[in-house]
Amino acid sequence: MGTLILRRLAAMIPVLVLVTFGVFSFIHLTPGDPIDAMMGESFDAAAKERIRVELGLDQPIHVQYLTWIGRVVRGDFGRSIRDNEPVIENVSRRIGVSLQLAAYAMAISLAVAFPVGILSATHRNSPIDGFGTMFALFGICMPNFLIALLLIYVFGVKLAWLPISGYSPPDDGLVAWVRSLTLPAITLGLALAAVVTRTLRSSLLETLSEDYVRTARAKGLAEYLVIRRHALKNGLIPVVTILGLQLGTLIGGAVITEFIFALPGVGRLVVSAIFSRDYPMVQGVILLIAIGFVLSNLLVDIVYGWLDPRIRYG
Amino acid sequence: MLATDSRPPRRHLSRRGFLQAFAVLSGGLALSAACGQQPGAPAKPAESKPAEAAKPAAPAATTAPAAAAAPASKPAESKPAEAAKPAASGEAPKKGGTLRVGLTTEAVTMDPHLSGSKIDRMIYHNVYEPLVVLDTRLQIKPGLADSWTQPDPKTIVFKLRQGVKFHDGTEFDAESVKFNFDRMQNPETKSVRTGEIANVQNAEVVDKYTVKLNLKKPDAALLATLTDRAGMIISPEAVKKFGADLQRNPVGTGPFQFVEWIKDDHLTVKRFDGYVGAKDGGPYLDQVRYRPIPDDTVKLQSLIGGEIDFMDYVQPRDVAGVKGNSNLVEIDVASLAAFGYQLNTTRPPFDNKALRLAVAHGIDNEAITKGVWLGVGTAANGPISPASWAYDSSIPPIKRDVAKAKQFLAEAGKPDGFTFTLSTGQTPIASQEAEAIKAMLAEVGITVEIQLVDGARGQADGNARNFDMTSYAWSGRPDPDGNTFQFFKTQPGSGLNWAGYSNPKVDEILDKTREVSDQAERKKLYSELVKILQADSPWIFVVHPVEPKAFSPKVQNYDPVPDGMMRFKDVWLK
After folding, report:
1. Cβ of A172 under 8 Å from any chain B Cβ?
2. ipTM of the assembly?
3. Can you spell out the DSSP letters for A117-141?
4. CA distance B564 to chain A (A)
5. Per-residue pLDDT tens for B373-382?
6. Full-prediction pTM beyond 0.90?
């Protein structure tokens, strides 16, 4: 297992180099530049040029890239062009919000998907299965923003059970914190639950028809034990794959949800940085997201090995 | 729109509730476009391009007809709602409470010398004070300066208010004013204000409370400029202490002092007890807590649900609903804004004046104001808004006249029409407007290709004059000079004159408006300017939007100034 982790960590390096190079090229090749975006209403061309030179934006792209990479390797992600705040400070403040939201959404999706998925599989073609399928279709088809607005209208405005928007940090009270993240987490969790439900159902159906399940039943094992010990554990592999991929997406990409609920997360930061062409910010954040993505995939591989000892890679 | 019924919260969603929800969601669909295509709208900091606050998301097509009928178009005068005026009710203001304000986007920087964003100014007007201020009728009144005189056209002498302290306890005096002007002019500062104070030679300390501005040439617009960021005085001590981090640690002399700023979450200010500029015991509020809520529907819902008390801008599609909601106060704050399109006069097709006029006469801006803006604004006759003293109501907007437009086409030798690209922002209202223009010009025989660009791209293309026709949303300035000079004066570089427009007669008028100080005289010059601009059409002027604001009825004594800023010095909570 140790070798596996080391090897995967080493394999991260080329991936990250590729990602940074890609991001760097795309953001620099996109028309528009941070000085124009920042000084939109100023008509002082000389001042703009001065700032451009000062920030090194007049250098060729490859020089800028190497300079940036050189600093990043030494742990210096630079400062935002917009407001001079260190990139790392801004991101570290937000990553917590995004991680909390991702974990909460993941928990909700699992809490929903497991019972629904298992019941659908064990009661195949029954009304329960039909309901499960319908739920999954609903979750997959409903776009995020629609679910979000519906939740806000029902639970925020009409029933006034939960806050409509905004984030309350855990320091200000745990209840308020959980409440502030509940609607966004349901929004994200619902769609994820739908995908997990479908995957779990089909994977369980497959394992339930395996010989060892028949053997387990034949030796008189209680049905719930058959499911839990034999079918579920083996049926989990594709689910773990999906969860791993989704975790990465949730951390970096809950953009629309963060926007609608006005949460100070990473997704919102990336988008606003892109729109103001805040190069150091975009590059820094995407690099950090990429690292998160690669790490969550590594986690998935480790869980594979735990679930199915035949998979060892090493 | 939703909470118009005052039924108590119910556990079940009735059929009617469901239908209401659906009505909301149809509004949400329009928003989906905003979210899907441009989740980052609020990131655009510059207020000059299809600014988020300015170019709002549009109504869903399905709800448009109903809504279009509702909001009356009464744009020019700001009519503060009754509820906003405590004087009428005779209640005495009381101290205390936190005012929670929803903003369209996150602020960019807290350093007024570096700010290019309208949202920043919303906050500045409570933390900083300018030398002179605007009243609700756009007249210039004493601010940090008690009085001012102009011994000659190239000198302004300010007598400063005494006993004013910065939030860090240091004293405000003539030295602090000089320090701020020096800082703006110092290239090291990289200040965005240099253009605004280009005519200032230097600031000179006469005595402790007298400061003199020496001008390079007469500038009748300068005082009005000093009512905003260029005239705001930052604590010199804070500048020395924080350096570049002043951007996140503002220290001024305003009624409220900075507490904390968590980006994309909230910015809090509290009452400055050493504030001497308020009458009768103000400022009253303990705190103001600003929250950026980028989604307009959610921001409105937050106001309806009581999570915020005040919102900076109501989308045209929501105005009718908010007006009809007895639990909310809505005011149509007149604005100085001018929205329209710049035509690139430096390259074909629009280097040909007849083709510009063909387009100008092919577009019905009255119809756009009604249909796209739902009457939340006035059709524009030029760059100066009806809120300004320089607005000439006797000049009508260019009328749509298809026959005349075709005549111009023939005159340009293109009787069968031509094709050009219209670049505009990605908000629903911007693209609706573009679609309307496309349809109108199709009837003339002109083909429009619409290109949607984000703010930064639009800026870059504009500066490089790499466009045919590009949308331009200007938030406006208190002096008409700020809506005209930089756009229509012949310039060596592009500046804001992306159109590349150059007319010696216009240059002469623009220079003269700065030299003449008599307002009636200046107004005449601006009328002349507007007529020439209509005849030359370097711009297509579309609309002067109104800036609707909404708040809870417990918010008292809010005085709307037509510059759209929110000043909370005298505001209190019932």
Report:
1. no
2. 0.82
3. HHHHHHTTTSHHHHHHHHHHHHHHH
4. 17
5. 999 999 999 9
6. no
